[in-house]
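Dear colleagues,

I hope this message finds you well. In preparation for our joint manuscript, I am sending the DMT family transporter (Mesorhizobium marinum) sequence together with its predicted structure, so that both groups work from identical material. I would be grateful if you could confirm receipt.
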Amino acid sequence: MDRTTSGWINGLVGVVIFSASLPATRVAVLQFDPLFLTAARAAIAGLLGLGLLFLFRERRPARTDLTSLFITALGVVVGFPLLTALALQYVTSAHSIVFIGLLPLSTAIFGVLRGGERPKPAFWLFSLLGSALVGGYAMTQGLAASPVGDALMLAAIVVCGLGYAEGAKLSRTLGGWQVISWALVLSLPVMLPLAFWTMPDSFAGIGAPAWTGLVYVSVFSMLVGFVFWYRGLAQGGIAAVGQLQLLQPFFGLAIAAALLGEPVTWTMLVITAGVILCVFGARKFAR
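The corresponding structure tokens are as follows:
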């Protein structure tokens, strides 16, 4: 298997894992404060990451890597989780699909600015078309306007794209799981005390769904997914593999159909097919 193909496979696994993140966050913030949820998921994942680094006796990152690690942490450990948790108090997870459709564009733009990539003009055409398909589909589902929620989601997409690109650039030399682990460890001195400070006075009224959501976003969304995602971006290219995020809403729909029995319509299938074509088109012209 060549490096590019391996990158696309790893990226796809990462996207599948991330697909349940927003629904899990939505469930969790119904009973957990957004600030506690953000701090707790980062603290739990940070402790796991610290354990992995210690177990495999990984070398410390060079001083020149610290700036990139802080940017990565700001984008994906703090910024995106906190902003989406706040936004999901105002909008539904379905509404957020509009903004998830913009994430591949954000990642590609920062891939150019921070990763030095230069996709061909046709790449941007396919990227814009795929984003339009995802956003257009979401808008047909009857979305209620919420300026505050929309502004928070837009900010989340910007910082997430930056965190993805910065972490992927660093993964080329440091390694995929090492990047997210070090970023989490760097955040630990702030996020662990913050988790205790924002902890609810009592957990008696917290139900199983909220706990399940917290565990999922802590272990899978915050750590395991990034192991595959950063490796995929580093191997297959930030701009190219980043287009796989266009499929994330539809993987979410498939998960909902399988676990919750929600219907999958012909419209969903047609739009998904169109998005897949855009992803393959973007891949062809990414370099």
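For the figure legend, we might mention the following. The longest helix spans residues 208-236. The chain has one domain: 3-284.

With kind regards,
E.M.
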